[in-house]
Specification:
With 414 residues, the protein is α/β, with parallel strands linked by helices. The chain has helices spanning 67-86, 106-118, 130-142, 174-181, 197-213, 232-240, 252-264, 280-286, 308-318, 328-347, 352-361; strands at residues 22-23, 53-60, 94-101, 123-127, 147-150, 164-166, 188-194, 217-224, 245-249, 271-274, 294-297, 363-366, 369-371, 385-390, 394-399. It is 34% helix and 19% strand. The strands form four sheets. It has a five-stranded parallel beta sheet, with helices on both faces. A four-stranded parallel beta sheet has the order 8-7-9-10, with helices on both faces. It has a three-stranded mixed beta sheet with strand order 1-12-13. The model is unreliable at 1-9 and 11-50 (pLDDT under 50). Keywords: Signal.
Length: 414
């Protein structure tokens, strides 16, 4: 849990609320509301507690490149909405989620943000992607509507925005560093990232900080285009460089093609760590090749955290299958809405500047852990852990040691 230091105010107009308060909430996620388009929805006054209802705008990729994760986010949003409705609303006030498919497109995300601003919603969540989050920020900043991003790792895009918050903490890759430091036959590492800002930042931290701090040698480092589907040339270069381990920072569809390419080219690293390899679809797509694959995570279902039991029960009652499971993406979605819940309760209002100040200066108990934000609106409370796929379809937490549910499988089976 982070210490109770005071955060620097972004856009502050008052010092009356200088202490950080913790909001503990045991409620869960959302309900069975289907995808609701903006057309035909009643615009909200934006006053929150002063009106008959609260409105939260949701931008979610239900089509396009990120749609395999979009359904996970949508189910988690629905679970929170259902749990809030079942408990009588927030302080007796009903909450409406307005969900729009951003089509995994920056231009569509920007249009959605403008519509949310025009309709004066109280709060906005963008589910997944730093570029999409950045596209939404200007319109919502101008309207002074808090925007919280989930599945977004580019902390640099928050500079210059007072109303933009990043629920997912910057990726540290401490788990990979710790594990590889204990294996002499895995210390020569290849690093590959998609050529986007969030991934380049994460890879840079690994190459320049984590690797040297843990006695690792980065023998190959490269980026690939977002549209890349053929990874053979990258795998051959990594193999020729003598890489014993592989750390990837890209999207889930890249991970699938990348691991298949490794197997096809007889490149068999002893350790493979892929940033987005948490979704159930990864296991289904890779089959036995998923065994031993590691991935950073902020959440596991066995966590003893605020509202986790209700979250899981409702999530599974809405939509649970081998393709859709409550992984850390779902926890991000649920936690982002728990943060609104806490900020609204602390402020006693849904007025944008009051919510913004509460988010800057409070802690929020969520299914992912204790959330808080630094002076740039970037998560500084929830830590990263590391999971590993074992026994084909199960996942074990292998880092940090005090939270581990299993031992590391070494080397990765091929």
């Amino acid at each position: 849990m982070p210490d109770n230091h005071q955060h620097t105010h972004r856009g502050s107009t008052s010092d009356s609320d200088s202490t950080r308060r913790t909001f503990l909430r045991a409620t869960g996620a959302l309900g069975t509301a289907g995808l609701t388009g903006l057309a035909g929805c009643t615009a909200l006054s934006g006053g929150g507690g002063g009106g008959d209802s609260l409105t939260i705008g949701i931008s979610v990729p239900l089509s396009g490149d990120f749609s395999n994760l979009g359904s996970i986010y949508e189910t988690a949003f629905d679970a929170w909405e259902q749990n809030v409705e079942d408990s009588g609303g927030l302080d007796g006030t009903s909450v409406e989620l307005r969900k729009e498919d951003n089509q995994s497109s920056e231009s569509q995300a920007s249009e959605i943000a403008s519509q949310f601003a025009n309709d004066e919603v109280d709060y906005v969540v963008n589910a997944y992607s730093s570029p999409l989050s950045r596209a939404m920020a200007p319109a919502l900043e101008d309207a002074q509507i808090p925007l919280i991003t989930t599945g977004s790792l580019n902390y640099e895009i928050h500079q210059g925005f007072d109303y933009m918050f990043m629920f997912e903490p910057p990726l540290a890759r401490k788990g990979a560093g710790s594990i590889l430091s204990q294996h002499d036959d895995g210390k020569k590492v290849a690093a590959l990232a998609v050529d986007l800002g969030w991934a380049r930042l994460s890879q840079k931290r690994f190459v320049e900080q984590v690797a040297p701090d843990n006695g690792l040698e980065v023998v190959y480092s490269a980026t690939h285009a977002r549209e890349t589907t053929d990874f053979d040339s990258f795998m051959l270069r990594a193999k020729q460089a003598g890489a014993q381990s592989f750390v990837a920072t890209n999207y889930s569809h890249h991970v699938v093609n990348m691991v298949r390419s490794m197997a096809a080219r007889n490149f068999t690293p002893k350790y493979v760590d892929a940033q987005t390899a948490t979704a159930a679809s990864i296991g289904n797509d890779l089959g036995s090749l998923v065994e031993g694959l590691a991935a950073p995570t902020m959440y596991m279902q066995q966590f003893d955290t605020a509202g986790n039991e209700e979250f899981l029960e409702t999530f599974k009652s809405i939509r649970s299958s081998e393709e859709i499971s409550a992984d850390y993406h779902a926890a991000l979605a649920y936690g982002a809405l728990q943060t609104f819940e806490g900020a609204y309760a602390n402020a006693g209002s849904a007025e944008g500047s009051e919510l913004q100040q509460q988010m800057m200066n409070s802690e929020f108990e969520t299914v992912a852990g204790t959330a808080s934000f630094n002076e740039n609106g970037v998560q500084d409370g929830i830590p990263w852990s590391l999971l590993q796929w074992q026994d084909t379809k199960s996942k074990q937490l292998v880092f940090p040691e005090e939270r581990a549910t299993g031992d590391v499988t070494w080397p990765k089976p091929w």
